[in-house]
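The material for today's practical consists of a large collection of protein records. Getting from the letters to the tokens is the skill we practise here. To make this concrete, we reproduce a full record directly below:
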Amino acid sequence: MTDHWTPGDRRPDTASMLRVNQAGEYGATRIYAGQLAVLGRGTPASHLVARMAAQEQRHLDRFNALMAERRVRPTLLQPLWNVAGFALGAATALMSEQAAMACTEAVETEIERHYAEQLAELGDTDPAFTADIADFQAEELEHRDTARANGAADAAGYPLLTAVIRAGCRAAITLSKRI
């Protein structure tokens, strides 16, 4: 980390960033778990979801390790994100494979935007953390694009469905930063 701070400088709140990132990746693993519980195994959609879930697990594992190293507590809302994430994943998969893809598109759109904001705020203050976020951001974009290429926009009620999910993601981000 760079130690060239002067009085009055605003330092990025990396503990809050780490807390919300870990919560988001945890939520993503739960969404994919819910989708896989409904989609089963062996279908084209389940193969896509399983691959994305494995990447999200890698992100979660890295943020868990950073939280332990930096002594950052997880969000107190973790039990809620456990249930809400699984329920969202299962519900969208029950609607259709396209709705599951729409869910992925909506979530990843918000996460990518969130990571972009963090990268701008971090600048060159924490190169290792910045590199992790940039790496994960690229994979989130890949997930969003995969969902789009696999019928997300064909989901029934697509505009409303994605708007509601995106709003929920923004609310979860806001809450998980501090609570």
